[in-house]
Known about the structure:
Chain A folds into two domains: 38-165 and 301-389, Rossmann fold (3-Layer(aba) Sandwich), CATH 3.40.50; 168-297 and 391-406, Response regulator (Rossmann fold, 3-Layer(aba) Sandwich). Chain A is built from twelve helices and 17 strands. Chain A has helices at residues 3-22, 60-77, 96-107, 121-133, 167-181, 195-211, 229-236, 249-259, 279-285, 304-318, 327-344, 357-365; strands spanning 38-41, 47-53, 85-91, 112-117, 137-140, 160-162, 186-191, 214-220, 242-244, 269-272, 293-297, 346-347, 353-356, 370-372, 375-377, 390-394, 403-406. In chain A, α2 (60-77) crosses α10. Helices cover 74% and strands 3% of the residues of chain B. Chain B has 14 helices and four strands. In chain B, the strands form two sheets. Chain B has a two-stranded antiparallel ribbon. A two-stranded antiparallel ribbon of chain B has the order 2-3. In chain B, β2 and β3 form a beta hairpin.
Amino acid sequence: MSKRTFSVLSLLVIASLALAACQPAAPAFTPPTDTIGVVTIGPNDPIHIAYALVISGADETLGVDSRNGIEVAIAKKGQVLGHNVQLTGEDDGCSAEGGQAAGTKLAADPTIVAVIATSCSSAARVAVPLLSQAGFVTVSPSNTAPDLTLAGNPNSHPGYLRTAHSDLVQGAAAAKFAYESLKVTKAATIHDGSLYAEKLQEVFAEEFKKLGGTITSQEAVDPNATDFKSVLTSIVTTGPEIIYYPIFVKAGSLITRQAKEVPGLEEVHLMGADGMFSPDVVEGAGDAVEGLNVSSPDLSAFAAAYTTEFLPKYKELFGTEPISIFHAHAYDAAMMIFAAIEKVAVKGPDGSLYIPRQALRDAMYATTDFAGLTGSLTCSPTGDCADPVIAVYEYHAGEYPPERIWP
Amino acid sequence: MLRTWIQRITLTDILVWAIGLVILVGVIWGSIVTLETGKYSAENWTDLTITGLALGGVYALIALGYTLVYGILRMINFAHSEVFMSGPFTATFMADALIVLGWWNKYPLLSLVIVLLVAAAVSSVIAILLERIAYRPLRAAPRLVPLITAIGASFFLQYVFRGLYGSGLKGYPEMEIFKGFWVLSGIRIFKTQAAAIVGAVVMMLILYGIVQWTKIGKAMRSVSEDKEVAALMGINVDRVITITFAIGGAAAGVAGILYLLLFPVAHFFMGFFPGLKAFTAAVLGGIGNVPGAFLGAMVLGLLESIGPNLFLDGLGIPAPNQLKDAIAFAILVLILIFRPTGLLGERLAQAKA
């Protein structure tokens, strides 16, 4: 080795040593810790959000519509802290069994950060404890059974929130509409044994009695039945002026039809709830749908962005107008989750993301004045985030959506 | 004599009889109390009776498919409920087309015939394919095997139709001629119900005639009695079985249209519950027995329609209509306890054993 080469090499070695010395020792990165675990997302991995909604069967418009809402939110948001959002999901079947299956499957996947679930309260009652146990944040766009967010109730679980209204609000609004606007004093109710319908008619009946009305009978049917003549005959003997049946599309449309065929019920008012806010009701009930009232979240009270941004995007992505009522609630649920993740997630030096689960829950519950499509959302300590304005709509034969008539 | 009879009685027998007796007493007691309160007028009862008969007519035509196939192959074709769903579901689209053509209310009878033919043809073809693909290759297999393929085929058909037509509800358009009702000596009967009852009875008579008095009917009966001997006598057993499925399918297709007259909403899952009920009706009447299927279906339809109000209302049970199916099935248990072969008994029960 010549002298010259040697000197060049030595210089290089010295220079590199000096450079190395100049660089300050990197402080060791400590990922956050959390009482119920931390989700780690690799630098190029997406943030995993899951859903459990009813996406098959006769009530599927409800769940598919909500899923569309989530997808609009994801499309709108693009990336969260530089990560894509991955959406996977299960069918909640709008039933306890479906909730069990979906909940078990999702709870077994530790990559899930948050779940948007479920469509139906019956499914929630079974799925939510499983999802809560798994440490997820669960936000429902359409569960309305009151006990899911009642403090101290065994059906209220940590990590569960909802952007849908509690039926304490909807049932009361329906009773008020019937008593004050329709000016009826005698009401009969029908439920189908589902948690949603049973609670809703219970709240309705209580409120209606408080206002001064009487409940002539409280009946129940099998959601899979097709012949409701016997129940309607039983009701007609008690002489109600309105029948309130806050059930789902399939049975609801057939009751609407058959009520017109039972003598004595031709002039009686018929009223359902948001579970029957669907084009399938117009299809299923035919001409008998004329004059059917349904209570539902008031679409006209939604933020301006609903018509200017959300609806065009929805139409662009799915080629149709919204097919049910809880798309905006699902959109808000997704947006709230994204906002909470942005608040609590910690970025590692290599670009990976650490999301502490308890902190995420706390951030969700701390949501205040969140500007959502459905209103300004503030979550209660038990997870009620809705800003509920309930309106009553009236169907006309062959037309969807129904006409808003109250308040 | 008495002694051997007492010796033969087991604890299970006593228990079963006790259950039967409790149900029977409950039913009678409930009915008496309900009738005494006079809550329901005679008009209510006749209305419910007609509703029950119309429902029974639909069940009867579906039950026929179960009973014919059972009579010949000794297997329960659990995919029959999907055969029932497929024809009418397709026919709703035919009806839409006829409306667009303007024929629906202009030529109502012609339209009805077209819709009926489409429904019967589609159901029939599906029943034939079902037999050819899912059952024939397994005819020599143990009896449980075709039962499983039947359930598989049932799911397959449901989801094929879901894929084809979507999972939403599909309304069946009402015809002007079926709107409204007639009043016959003070009894109000809806035209749709009248059509369902008359349609079912006519179909039933035709089918009974085919089985009893035609050559193919004779062949069906002989295959039902003994396949091997029938084959030796020169009967083409495969052909007879295919025709049996075709007839059962056509009856189910017609049943589907009658069902849509009563409940004008089609969806891919609509076959399941009527199918279950019709199967029950077939068992109730004595499976393998054509008049039995008719009788069983009428009894079941009436029980479902009248049962909750008649039996349970008087017992002070709240919301009895939720228990409609429970009542129907409790009565089924009751009948089978006292008559294990069904109301009319299984034809040729001895010969089969």
